[in-house]
Amino acid sequence: MNAPMTGLAMMPDLEPPRLVDEEPAVVVSGLTKRYGDFTAVDQVGFTAFPGEVIGVVGESGSGKSTLLRLLNLEEQPQAGTYTLGIKSCAGVNLFTLGRFESRSTRVRHIGIVYQNPHLGLHMHHTSGGNVAERLLVAGERSFHALRRRARAALDASEFPMDRIDVPPLTLSGGMQQRVQLAKAIALEPDLLLLDEPTTGLDVSVQALVLDTLKRLQRDRRITMVIVSHDLGVIRTLADRVLVMRRGAVVEAGLTDQVLGDPQHPYTQQLVHAKL
Amino acid sequence: MTALRDLVRPWQRYSYGFLDESAKRAVRRGLLKAIAIPGCQISYASREMPMARGWGTGGLQVSLTLVEPESVVKVIDQGADDGVNAANIRSFIARASGARTTTDTLEATLIQSRHRIPEERLTRNQLLVLQVPDPEPLRAVVPDISVARIMHADADYGLMWLKLYEQLVQAGRVTQSSSYPSLVNGRHIMSPSPIPRWDTPKLHQAENLTLLSAGREKRLYAVPPWTDVKPLEFSDVAFKVEDQTGRVCERTGATGQFMNEMPLLDGTSTFELSDAGFAEKLARRRAGEAVTIGPTYYVDGELQP
User: What's the DSSP call for residue B296?
Assistant: First the structure.
């Protein structure tokens, strides 16, 4: 190291600059979804690089959840393209895939955590079984491998191992979210979608779940899209943020920048709105 | 003036095989489709039969459609030829068709069965018709039948596997004892009617045609000859049939076949061959009669190739 830089050597190791040479993990452009006359998602586009966390904020009915459903290939948009940086369908607009390819892409490359655990889990099956189902759908047929991999995924989402054979129905809300998270990350997805993952949990549990998400993101460098109306959650997790209103993105940028110095009147309102 | 009798067909007795020609035609069309797509459930217009739904009306309709005057009919209920249900169905088919009846599996050309497949190996000249109470293997995991049909179309069988996984986790073994879900021709999962696990491997690469019919649920499906039928199993937890070791048939002294357990007053139990027609032949041979006994699927409890 050169002499003038000795001052810097005292500082802790900084992360090497990311996002520079890499291909984007997710590219979405011109996404539009209409239900009859009502436009739920209007010309939404963004790019996410590997390991990046995109936050989506906005009030109820602003199209956040519809956007997530589109990204999870649960619905077809009227217009727009969506590509994932994965080998099997590099450069392919995922909305043009057939029914079977679409399903296998969803299972193998995309994980989702819903706000309502009833949507994502089989409440009467065991927690381990819920995670194992993902692996079974992907073709794992060894019981012991299933057991081991389900355990590993639950462990990674900091689920207590002694409750692995308990149905999610009997678990607390925070634990149910951990089971959903374990299920979502079991196949090491390229994209993790989080729909209000901490809404409805009390503040201390919320903090624990956020810790888990943060650690996962750091360890595994999963690209995430997180939808929340809670700016605190977005501030903690997201690198960049999209502000949505009436289906359209009104402001986008680095989280600190957008939340610290909002430009659009709606974002200003959102940031300053506190009970 | 036109009289009413000029407009209707002249009165005649029931048509051959009880069902009218259009009903038989509808069943045959359903059967052809079922054979063309092994294991896939085909809906059909199940008719009213002179018997309550749930007592084998599905199997009966297929039998009456396929029966011929030269047919030799055997009807089994839980392995026995002399159950009330089996005896009545057998006499009804015979009355409606003029076909001969038998209890000997080797002699029969058309076998209608509830809950069992005979122990003696079926051949290419024989038809097996199984009565099915619940044709939908996914019903246990998906309450909505239309969702289940979509899952069949997508070959989305994760939940079916999950059911077995859960049984292994909770009981340490697969507890599914009958209707063991099986993958037919590598595509559709079917419920092979409530036959015991013991009988499920008999369907794999079988020489005979097996037709399954659920009258109440109005569904037909089939396992054509020489078709793969693989019971679902994990690669490291093998599918096992019921263990029959140490069980000796009280009447015939036979071993290594599927036995019925008969509890005794003192708390112990004895065993008897479940396949009554087979047992009868063994007993007759024991008494010194010359009886032909065909090759069996299992010998000493081991499945024969």
Answer: B
CA distance A131 to chain B (A): 10
In a domain, B166, yes or no: no
pLDDT higher than 60, residue A7 = no
What percent of chain A shows pLDDT beyond 70? 92
Range of the domain at B274: 259-303
pLDDT (tens digit per residue) in B47-63: 999 999 989 999 999 99
Give the ranges where A83-172 is alpha helix by DSSP (H): 99-109, 117-120, 127-137, 143-156
Domain membership flag for residue B210: yes
What are the C-alpha distances in Å from A41 to residues A29, A245, A247? Answer: 12, 9, 4
- Are residues A136 and B165, on separate chains, in Cβ contact within 8 Å? yes
A134 to chain B: nearest residue by CA?
Answer: B158
Say what the ipTM of the complex is.
0.81
Q: Closest to A136 (Cβ–Cβ): which among B158, B168, B170?
A: B158
The last residue of one of the domains, among B231, B246, B271, is B231
Write phi, then psi, for A137 (nearest 5 degrees): -60, -35
Residues B289 and B189 in one domain: no
Asked whether residue B224 falls in the same domain as residue B264, the answer is no
Contact B154, A103 (CB under 8 A): yes
Closest chain A CA to residue B153: A100
Task: Determine contact: A122 vs chain B, CB below 8 A.
Answer: yes
Name which of B159, B166, B234 is nearest A141 (Cβ-Cβ).
Answer: B234
**Sign of torsion, CA B159 B182 B305 B255?**
positive
The stretch A217-231 carries a mean pLDDT of: 89
Determine which helix (DSSP H) or strand (DSSP E) holds A217, and give its type and residue range.
helix A203-220
Q: State the amino acid at position B299 in one-letter form.
A: V
Q: Which of B154, B159, B237 sits opposite A143 (nearest CB)?
A: B237
Across A239-263, average pLDDT: 91
- Subunit contact A136:B162, Cβ cutoff 8 A: yes
> DSSP of A64-107, one letter per residue?
HHHHHHHHTTSS--SEEEEEE--STTTT--GGGS-HHHHHHHHH
Coil/strand/helix, residue B75: strand
Q: How many structural domains comprise chain B?
A: 2
pLDDT in tens, A124-156: 899 999 999 999 998 899 999 999 999 999 998
